[in-house]
Amino acid sequence: MIRKLPRYIWSVYFFICFILIFLVLYPFFVVLLSKPKWYPQAHKLRRVWGKMLMAVTGLYGKTTKDEELKLDKTYIFTPNHFSYFDIISVNTQMPYFFSFMAKKELSRIPLFGIFFRTLDMPVDRSSNEGSKRAYYLANKKLKSGISLLNFPEGGIGPQVPKMRDFKLGPFKMAIEHGIEVVPVTLPDNWRRLPCGEWIPAGTPGRMRMHIHRPIPTENLKPGDELALAEQVYGIIEAKFNEMNGL
Hints:
Blueprint: H1 5-32, H2 39-57, E1 59-65, E2 75-79, H3 85-93, E3 98-103, H4 113-116, E4 121-123, H5 128-143, E5 147-150, H6 169-177, E6 180-185, H7 189-192, E7 205-211, H8 225-243
Parallel strand pairs: 1-7, 2-5, 2-6, 3-4, 3-5
Antiparallel strand pairs: 6-7
Helix pairs in contact: 1-2, 2-3, 6-8
């Protein structure tokens, strides 16, 4: 506990900066999220928020890609999920416009609910009705040309850095709409901010990201979602092990 004290202090400092920067930007979010046509600008402002936060807390990102993605194309992004820092990473280090699908508990955080009432989608996995509503909203976003980002593990598991089995929802939607799936590997965030403690013992440092080559789905059919999920799982796991020297 004593040896971790500086890391706890850094975590408290990080969350203070997180909230203070958000409060400064909040009025701008209110305006930009008041009309759907301004949502892309609101998402860009989230990137600014993340970059400012990383700059003042000693975090630095490095993004590598198998290939450049088209900024005007619709994708479903599927990163691994080992840390709360993953949300900051994908917002800040990915230059693409997308909507989050995230657990409904995040929508209950004061002020942050503004994102889940507009740009993003809360997922209530505890009820069939909640899951169906999230699936309906996600399909509506895809039809309108908005990319989605979904953590297919459904949450941070207790066995980090071992991934949970993937849920099939995002892969079903990809096949249904013929949309490419983009695996994303986040190899460092679990070291920066481990989960499992009320106040995590965090550390500044690098937050790498690797964006993989998109996987086409136009030739897949309903029932192929399990094989697609396993393919994505294998791609992320292999890259995660490579980047961590495992």
